[in-house]
What we know:
mainly alpha
Amino acid sequence: MKRLLQLVVLILAVGGVSFGVTRWLAREQPPADSLEWMTREFSLSADQRAAIARLQADYAVVYEAHCVAIMAARDAGDPAELKRLETVCTTATRAHLHAVAACMDPAAARRFLALVEPKLAGHRHEAPLGLP
Length: 132
């Protein structure tokens, strides 16, 4: 009887470990960046992905300039200038997101904007917008 109990415990232990290892190996890897996320989430073609990559590269320079200006206004303690710069950044980012959406199929574009525009509305300009 003791051997039977040991065998059952061993089988359950091996089964539990096998299940855990299988679940761990089968987990979906998070996207490396926003372009990878968009490619997966919206089934982008190679051409769409390339067009969006160009838009993102071009906008990264603009966004960096906005961040530097916003941080300088924060450091200077100028709330009026800070508000103006945040509005400029939000407006430019919204235009960028719409340009990105224009590279997608219409249904994907609508879904993309529905996902990201609420994030933009609540963005506090303390860190990059962050997608997804």
